[in-house]
From TrEMBL:
Belongs to the Nth/MutY family. Residues 61-210 form the HhH-GPD domain. Its cofactor is [4Fe-4S] cluster. Adenine glycosylase active on G-A mispairs. MutY also corrects error-prone DNA synthesis past GO lesions which are due to the oxidatively damaged form of guanine: 7,8-dihydro-8-oxoguanine (8-oxo-dGTP). It catalyses: Hydrolyzes free adenine bases from 7,8-dihydro-8-oxoguanine:adenine mismatched double-stranded DNA, leaving an apurinic site. One of its GO terms (biological process) is mismatch repair. This is Adenine DNA glycosylase. PROSITE patterns: ENDONUCLEASE_III_2.
DNA sequence: CACGCGTGGCC
DNA sequence: TGGCCAAGCGT
């Protein structure tokens, strides 16, 4: 396994050159973002550490999520909960509601749990040791390293998708992902600067986000073009190598729009674990590989009643499968005795609904019978 | 450790 | 248009 890369790590001098040119590039091209503190620039100037709460909040939101998507959510959270104590005091439902549409809802539950951990275990102040950060809910190796570097100014190497790509190209790592992960992390660690660790970490990510991107390598603008081995070969887009992905399957299901005579609609909280965990939604059948016929759809209904199938289907694409959902209106024949809540349409905006549920609501508006 | 977990934008 | 991608984590 020790064929680490096609080319060996850089010498001490080369590393110093790489660090200097990247930091200079960062100062020159600095992008302002709501959670950032500007680089002081200059000689040995370390950027003053940012508020750990803001760094943490932004990093959790940015997990697998684009900057443009995160910005409005980040502003809303920070304005509503300015510090970790405020967030810890909030009811979980409020946090989930504020998170709706952002996806990966386990992050929101872990965020809330983490806020309470900070208050109960650390007196409301973020710990400044990587191991203590790692013990917090929702904080993994990447986020712990990011907080260490950006908020506490400590030498640490957060390795996100950008850093993986930049590093794989710089060294021409021949091993394919995800197997190459450890190897790439080790190589990335050899680059990390002692000075301005927070700026260096963000510079690596910015480089991957704006210059050394997945689909384009704008090597002309890259501060590392003189040392990059993939650029020297003229094949930067060949890295990082990846193993082929499986094709995304389609799964089928039925969603039940339970409507009472007064017009209220039935919602229930989804189980904490699993798809859209902890969010509100209308009842759904189990998801199957095959289309679900009318008989099975009636059999899966949560209560007895008159069923009307709406025309069309709701299509929603998740990370690991494509969902094709039939929607039927169900007028319960008997009183409700299943756990959940009846919600007036004018109050839909009060409950935490994932995007799939909003699509279903829209589908009923368009195709539903009044 | 491979997999489950959202959503929106891009070509 | 379908596949790929985006500042990963928990199990």
């Amino acid at each position: 396994m020790e064929k680490a890369s096609e080319t060996p790590p850089f010498s001490r001098d080369a590393r110093a050159r790489l660090q200097g040119s990247l930091l200079a590039w960062y100062d020159r091209t600095y992008r302002e973002l709501p959670w950032r503190t500007p680089p002081r620039g200059g000689e040995n100037g370390d950027t003053p550490g940012a508020d750990p709460y803001r760094v943490w909040l932004s990093e959790i939101m940015l997990q697998q999520t684009t900057v443009a998507t995160v910005i409005p959510y980040y502003r809303a959270f920070l304005s509503r909960w300015p510090d970790v104590a405020a967030l810890a005091r909030a009811p979980l439902d409020d946090v989930l509601h504020a998170w709706q549409g952002l996806g990966y809802y386990a992050r929101a539950r872990n965020l809330h749990r983490c806020a309470r951990q900070i208050v109960s275990q650390w007196g409301g102040r973020f710990p400044s040791r990587e191991a203590d950060l790692r013990a917090l809910s929702g904080v993994g190796p990447y986020t712990a390293a990011a907080i260490m570097a950006i908020a506490f100014g400590q030498k640490a190497t957060p390795v996100d998708g950008n850093v993986v790509r930049v590093t794989a190209r710089l060294f021409c790592v021949s091993t394919a992902l995800p197997h190459a992960r450890a190897e790439i992390e080790a190589l990335a660690g050899t680059l990390t600067a002692d000075r301005r660790p927070g700026d260096f970490a963000q510079a690596m990510m910015d480089l991957g986000a704006t210059v050394c991107t997945a689909k384009k390598a704008l090597c002309v603008h890259c501060p590392w073009k003189g040392d990059c081995r993939a650029h020297a070969r003229g094949t930067p887009l060949d890295y990082p190598r990846k193993t082929a992905k499986k094709k995304k399957p389609t799964r089928h299901g039925v969603a039940y729009w339970l409507r009472r005579p007064d017009g209220d609609v039935f919602f229930q909280r989804r189980e904490e674990k699993g798809l859209l965990g902890g969010m509100m939604g209308i009842p759904m059948s189990p998801l199957e590989e095959q289309k679900i016929g009318p008989n099975a759809a009636a059999r899966f209904a949560p209560v007895a009643g008159d069923i009307t199938f709406l025309s069309g289907v709701v299509i929603h694409v998740f990370t690991h499968f494509r969902l094709e959902l039939m929607v039927c209106v169900l007028v319960p024949r008997v009183g409700d005795d299943i756990p959940g809540m009846w919600v007036r349409e004018s109050h839909f905006s009060d409950i935490a609904l994932p995007t799939l549920m909003k699509k279903i609501i829209s589908h009923v508006r368009v195709n539903g019978l009044q």
